[in-house]
Amino acid sequence: MTTLEHSIVMGGSMAGLLAAAALAPHSARVTVVDRDPLPVDGPDAFAPRRGVPQGGTVHRLLALGEARMEELLPGLREDFLAAGAVPRAAREADPVLDETTPNEGAPAAADGPLGADEHDAPGVDEPGTLWITRPVLEGVVRRRVLALPGVEAVQGAVGGLLTSDDKRTVTGVQLRGTDAGELHGDLVVDAAGRSSRAATWVEGLGGTRPRTLGTRVHVAYTCQRLRLREGALPEGTESLSAPASSRRPLTIDLEPCGDGEHVLAVAGTSRHQPPVDLAGLLDLVALQPERELADALDSALEGAEPVGQSSAAKAAGAHRQLWEETTDGPEGLLHIGDSAVMFTPLYGQGMTMAAVGAVALRDMLTDDGADGLAARFPRLLGALLDRAWEITTSRDAQIPDAEMLVDGAVVEELPATGSLVGAGQSTGETHR
Ligand SMILES: Cc1cc2nc3c(=O)[nH]c(=O)nc-3n(C[C@H](O)[C@H](O)[C@H](O)COP(=O)(O)OP(=O)(O)OC[C@H]3O[C@@H](n4cnc5c(N)ncnc54)[C@H](O)[C@@H]3O)c2cc1C
Questions:
Q1: For labelling alongside 167, which of 29, 60, 246, 292 has CA 20 to 30 A away?
Q2: Closest ligand 1 atom, CA of 196?
Q3: Residue spans with biased composition (Low complexity) (predicted)?
């Protein structure tokens, strides 16, 4: 059922691509606009992009994210495997999810590949079943999405919104750069990530700027891809993990990342920043206090060959714009992915919740059409993301020096968000 003529998606990263997949059955045309080129072939198809500086660091896709992406793009798991992803043999202890932060209320984790009961709603903190790098994951999704009928990519930076004369309806976007000009459409989806300027643009149109909630925790990652020697890991082991402890407040992980490579990933928060190069990472491993683990890591890394340079990335915590509270925003504009809610990366929720949002968008269009979408969708999305938001913020609160923020000001405690969806509004019973 096509209800839209032309949908424009600002941002061609995970949220934008998945939103485009969600829109494709409902929109005669979908244009994905990104500052970066979005190649589907050639050597750059699986390469890190400038617009996703975090792309060189470990990105874990939760089981829920896998399931939702598979719903949007059936057969995707096979494509990931064909592109070099490694299936996780079985449920393993996850240093972040299981040790430093208990796996609150998650159902039993899936062993092995997603099977017939893959849609049995895994929890928002259940580890996924694949080892894969972020650029490969995104590259595979990009190839699938841009092959969908009616979906195309345009390179350019969105510099503002086009609107009707009364500014009540968004009618397209203004492009800067090589292909400067105007793109006209009946729906604009803001998937421009944490640098999105949509709130400022909406304010400029006379709408209310949404309230923001957030945490400040300063997370830093350094990752180095490696080729380990044959049999480097202890027999029957596919990864090694050292959770953060009071004696060494950095997590260390050595895990497969596809194509016979492994990645050594070190993450820390606040004052505990990881070293930025391989030599520093190896020194840190040697200082690991638990002797047995230190020996295993040491021996696994002996003779390892670095693949490329190390990658470092930082994040400042979680950030949420409460679009569900605003009632005077323009019609024809939606926010999805990090531009709406950005999760603290430590818990690996961002891509998964982008997929949850995209499936909800597809289902809402299927069930109720496009009328009033700009008002209806944020309420549904907010309700669907609440649980993951609660997990992120409550775990952040346990990190020493963490701060809680409302509209950028430090507060003792964040307000609960579950109550934002009032009685009678959709809470996602039919929209998972
Ligand atoms: C260090 C780090 C580690 C992470 N680890 C994980 C993890 O393990 N698991 C997980 O699920 N998530 C992780 N995340 C989060 C994850 O990267 C994001 O949630 C995910 O990329 C979805 O984001 P997005 O598509 O909304 O935005 P982004 O990925 O930020 O993409 C925004 C896109 O919009 C484009 N853009 C921006 N402005 C414009 C404009 N004006 N015009 C045109 N294009 C524009 C950019 O070029 C970019 O392509 C991590 C994040 C960080 C920072």
A1: 29
A2: 38
A3: 105-115
